[in-house]
Amino acid sequence: MRFLDILKITAAIVLILFGALIGLGALVDSKPSDMSPLAEMVLVVLFSLVPLFLGVLIIYRVKTQTRHRRMEALEKEILELAKTNGGILSVQDLAMKTRLSLEESKKMLENFFADGWCGIDMDEGGRVIYIFNDLARSPRPNTSA
Fold first, then answer.
1. What is the residue extent of each domain of the chain?
2. What is the pLDDT of residues 19-68, one digit of tens each?
3. Most buried among 50, 92, 109, 121, using CB within 10 Å?
4. pTM for the whole structure
5. Is residue 138 a contact partner of residue 113, using CB atoms and an 8 Å limit?
6. CATH code of the domain occupying 85-145
């Protein structure tokens, strides 16, 4: 996680704690007030619920952006591996050379195929292979199964 993300999450936690503390204070406060109930409600919402909501929203956005960056890095790693293998990858090759399981490898390669980035074929041994023609040493016909 990047430093900026850590800083954002820290700020979000501070906002959440601030909102929770103000909210608890408003719930516990039992002495009579000179303010109208509507004014008290507006202050509780403004200083309790808004910081809570913003803190949760910041954490959600940081997590979403981090997940997106990881997915892009994984896609790049797969493409680099395909280029190293002459544009040809199998599910087993991908699983052995990355942190992905066999199921995750299959899903990633199927996504590349569904998006039109590669074709599917069978090698001499009957294994399903994914052919990235743009990365292949000698382009093969793009076969679709």
1. 1-73, 85-145
2. 999 989 888 876 777 888 888 888 888 999 999 999 999 999 999 999 99
3. 109
4. 0.72
5. no
6. 1.10.10.10
